[in-house]
Specification:
Helices cover about 30% and strands about 20% of the residues. It is an alpha+beta fold and about 210 residues long.
Amino acid sequence: MAGVRRADSGDPFDRRVPRTRPGFRLVMRIIYALALASLSLLGSGEGIAQGIVPTRGARVERLMEVARDTIGWKEERGNSGPVVDKILTSVGLEGTGAPWCAAWVVFVGDEAFGKQHNPFPRSAWSPAFVVKPTWNRGKGRLPGSADAFGVYFHHLKRVAHTGLVERIEGKMAVTIEGNTNDDGSRDGDGVYRKRRPLGTILARSWL
């Protein structure tokens, strides 16, 4: 009736959607509810585990958090043991005794984002992680945190070890990497934080 003001129902869409479109109002309510649920999920560990990470900065931090948590993990001997098998499972090579530096990168991606949202190649082949590098032994864009890196071995004429860049300090890349040791071997005994000369590595971002 003219001159009678409708009471405010508290519905955020009541005063914005024309009365002639009740179906549209229902759709908007559903979208509104889903948006609130998504925002809640984004702020939880479950949301991150499912790969729903809102910004690149948050993805970088999540990936590096998982990588840091693995520092100190050790194999039993010769690329074997429960830790190595857990890592090699990420590339389908559990129990094989295969080198596991690349598998460690995949494993970290799985733990950070879930398999469906892991951006890294599902591969145990270290050169695959620096295909089309943005940094190549002193040339290009300086690597950043969470970039995959590869160490070039002249006697093999290829990249033969990989891991993740944590940060840059001067002419050195501070890295976290699996299947290495105190000497920086490409076939070591655990997960270590290392320092690699920027002139010896290739790198690129997958995030």
